Amino acid sequence: MLPAALFFALFFSVCVAILVWPRRKFRGRGPLRKGRPRVSILVAARNEEATIERCLRALAAQRYPAGRLEILIADDGSTDNTAAVVRAFIADKPQFRLLSVQHRLGTTKGKSNALAHLCRAATTDFFLFTDADMAVGPDWVTGMLAAATPDVGVVTGITTARGNLFGRLQGLDWLLVSTSFACWPTRACPAPASATTCS
Fold first, then answer.
1. CA dihedral angle for residue 180, residue 186, residue 190, residue 192, rounded to 10 degrees
2. Which residues face 126 on adjacent strands?
3. One digit per residue, pLDDT tens: the chain, 199 residues?
4. H helices present in 94-139, as ranges
5. Quick one: CATH architecture of 39-198?
6. Which residues form the Glycosyltransferase 2-like domain (predicted)?
7. DSSP H helices in 91-161
8. In the chain, domain spans
9. CA separation (Å) from 33 to 41, 130, 194?
10. Which residues contact 1 (CB under 8 A, 6 or more apart)?
11. Distance of CA 144 to CAs 34, 63, 106, 110, 156, Å?
C-alpha cells in the first residue's frame, strides 16, 4: 500500500509541476485553413468488435465534407467479427474503406504494420490517426487542421478517459506523458487541437 501511495504522490506532484512550470506565452492556433483539403483518417483495428462501431459513428459524424474525407480501416488479423461490423457500417458510405492486413511491410509488426499499410493506401496530404476504441468529437478534423499551420509538422490531441478508475488513471498518465513531451523541448504548452474520448 505504501509503495502505491508514494507512486501516486510523486505522479501527481509531477503533474502539478508541469502545469505550473514557467513557459513562454503560446501564440495560439493559427487562422482556420482556407478551403477544405482532402484528409485521410487512418484506423488500425484488431479484435475491436465491441468498440469499432462507436468509433466509426464518430468519424461519420464529422462536421467536415464527407467527399473530402478518406477513412481507411485496417483489420489486422482480427479473430472476432471486427471486419463484419466494419463492412456492415460502411456499406453505404463511399468515404470509408476496409483493408485486410495480410503481410508485413519490411520489419514492421503488429499495429505499426497495420499503420504502415494504411499510410501506403492513403491518397491525401493530411493523415489523422485514431484508435478503434476512440470516439472523436464532431470537430476533430477541423481542429486538427487548424493547428497544422505551415510551420507545424505534427499535431496531437488530448485523450480523456471515461469509465472505471483504471481507465481514468490511464488517461491521466497519457496526459502527463504527452504534456511532458510537448512542453519540455520548447517550454511552451500548445493548446490541444481537439479532444478524443475513450472508454
1. -30
2. 39
3. 667 677 766 776 765 565 556 555 444 444 545 678 999 999 999 999 999 999 999 999 999 999 999 999 999 999 999 999 999 999 999 999 999 998 888 888 889 999 999 999 999 999 999 999 989 999 999 999 998 888 888 887 766 666 667 666 666 666 665 555 554 444 334 444 444 444 4
4. 110-121
5. Alpha-Beta Complex (3.90)
6. 40-163
7. 110-121, 140-147
8. 39-198
9. 18, 21, 16
10. none
11. 14, 13, 30, 26, 8
* Residue among 145, 173, 146 nearest 158 (CA): 173
C-alpha cell at position 26: 503560446
Which triple of cell numbers denotes residue 179? Answer: 504534456
Give the span between the Cα atoms of 64 and 142, in whole angstroms. 7
Cell (9 digits) for 193: 487541437
